[in-house]
C-alpha cells in the first residue's frame, strides 16, 4: 500500500492517542521509517500489522478500527492535492460514487504499480445506490463503509450506508447500499 495510506493512519493515531503511542506502535510493528514516505510503496503486510496493533491500542476490534480509519481517510485524502481532482469530478455523493474508478485511475497515473480498488454503482429501489466493491485485498470492507460515510459528511449530506453482501461470508464481492433519507422524505 502506498505510504500515503500508512501516513494517514499515523496521523489519525497521533491526533487521537498521541505521538508517544504512535512511536510504540511503530516499534511493535517493526516499521523502520519514523515517518512514512507518501510516494513510496510498502508491503500490504505493514498496513495490516499496524491496523491490528492500532485496534488493540484503541480497545476495539480490527473492523471498528478500519471503519474509523475510513472516516479519517476521507478527510485526509480531501486535503491532499488529489482532493482537487475529486472535487473537479463531482459535487455530491451521487456524482462521486460512479466516478470513483476514474478518480483512482487518474491518481494511479502518478504512482505506477499501485493496486487501486474497483467499484460499480447501480441505481436501486427507492432512489438508493448499490455500490459494488472489488479488491484483491481482504478485510477492507469496514474501511470502505467508513469512507462512504465520510463522503456524505464531506458534502454535508445525510446518507445511510449498509453492507448488504459480504465477501468474507461467501459472496463474490462486497456490496453496500447508500440511502438518501432526505430525498425520500
Ligand atoms: C481524493 C480522494 C482519494 C484519494 C487521493 C485516494 C487515493 C487512494 C490511494 C493512493 C490508495 C492506495 C492504493 C495502493 O497503495 O495500492 C487508495 C486505496 C483505496 N481507496 Fe482511495 N482515494 C480517495 C478516495 C476514495 C474514496 C472516496 C473511496 C470510496 C470508497 C476510496 C476507496 C479506497 C479503498 C477501499 C482503498 C483500499 C485499497 C483496496 O481496496 O484494495 N478511496 N486510495
Per CATH, the architecture of the largest domain is Alpha-Beta Complex
Low-confidence stretches: none
How far is the N terminus from the C terminus?
A: 41 Å
Number of helices: 8
Lateral arrangement of strands in the main beta sheet: 1-2-4-3
What value does the average pLDDT take? 95
Largest beta-sheet characterization? 4 strands, antiparallel
Indicate the CATH class of the largest domain. Alpha Beta
Form type: globular
Q: What hetero molecules are in the model?
A: protoporphyrin IX containing FE
The CATH homology group name of the largest domain: H-NOX domain
* Percent strand: 5-15%
Structure class: alpha+beta
Radius of gyration: 17 Å
What is the CATH T-level topology of the largest domain? H-NOX domain
The share of residues in helices is 40-55%
Number of strands: 4
Compute the number of structural domains. 2
Helix and strand succession? HHHHHHEEHEEH
In short:
The protein is of the alpha+beta class and 185 residues long. It folds into two domains: 3-59; 81-184, H-NOX domain (Alpha-Beta Complex).
Amino acid at each position: 500500500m502506498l505510504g500515503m495510506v500508512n501516513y494517514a493512519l499515523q496521523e489519525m493515531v497521533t491526533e487521537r492517542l498521541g505521538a508517544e503511542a504512535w512511536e510504540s506502535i511503530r516499534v511493535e510493528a517493526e516499521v523502520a521509517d519514523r515517518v512514512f514516505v507518501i510516494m513510496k510503496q510498502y508491503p500490504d503486510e505493514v498496513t495490516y500489522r499496524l491496523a491490528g496493533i492500532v485496534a488493540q491500542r484503541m480497545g476495539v476490534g480490527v473492523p471498528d478500527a478500519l471503519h474509523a480509519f475510513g472516516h479519517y481517510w476521507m478527510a485526509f485524502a480531501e486535503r491532499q492535492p488529489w482532493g482537487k481532482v475529486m472535487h473537479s469530478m463531482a459535487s455530491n455523493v451521487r456524482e462521486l460514487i460512479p466516478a470513483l474508478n476514474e478518480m483512482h485511475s487518474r491518481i494511479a497515473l502518478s504512482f505506477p504499480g499501485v493496486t487501486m480498488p474497483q467499484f460499480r454503482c447501480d441505481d436501486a429501489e427507492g432512489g438508493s445506490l448499490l455500490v459494488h466493491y472489488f479488491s484483491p485485498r481482504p478485510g477492507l470492507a469496514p474501511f470502505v463503509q467508513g469512507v462512504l460515510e465520510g463522503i456524505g459528511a464531506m458534502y454535508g449530506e445525510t446518507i445511510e450506508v449498509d453492507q448488504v453482501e459480504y465477501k468474507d461470508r461467501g459472496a463474490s464481492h462486497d456490496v453496500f447500499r447508500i440511502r438518501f433519507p432526505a430525498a425520500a422524505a
